[in-house]
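Schema walk-through. Below, the input block comes first and the output block second. Nothing else is stored per chain. Lengths vary across the set, and this one has 230 residues.
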Amino acid sequence: MKYLPAFLLLFVCGSQAFDFQNDDSDFDDSSKEQPCDEHDMSCIKHFFARHSHCSPVSGNPPDSYYMKNLTIDVPYANGTTELKNLQIKGLNSGKVENFFINKKSNVLVFEVVFSRIMLYSPSAKLIYYRKGKDPLTGTDYAKIEQKNLSLTFTIQYSHDFRISQGHVYSAVSGARYKIGPRGDNVVGAELARQIWKDDFGLAMREAMVAEGPELFHAYFKTTICSSSYH
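--- output ---
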């Protein structure tokens, strides 16, 4: 498998581009109100059931979750990956790290961390766009492994909110991938050249803009609250 440098991902995905994003002047422990302890899953499930009108999930979450399509755009590298019939494994490894309301901003914060997430698509289409030319394409299977993936869901707190209106921020400390021989040809080589040329971390952050929310909502529906989930 092709390895992506964990230290680079930690540096770029874990750091912030602007100083104000690291400004904690509006936040301290006294600003935190915890409706539930991070380890009390029953309380967390019923909290969301009350405020977002869904049904608490009972039993253990499934080992695998299936998604028909997931499109990941990486504008920096002029590329798109279309993952079809996607299998996601590892959502049941999620651990809640933070669950609180910041009383100063009135924002609900819900962070879940996964030790290892595996994505497999038997039909992954790689597209590389070119100036003044038709795009290069290649289709084959693809495997993606991500380690220590953090998904932080935030939303303006009220007694009635929609999960779909929240924001999901993603941070990952390491990843690796493998593409089948029909996809790992000139298309894969050109995409790799573009991604590695200047800033791999930027390409990964762009990819997680689409992937992160999908993974969070899959986790939420299978582990926290489902049914009339919206």
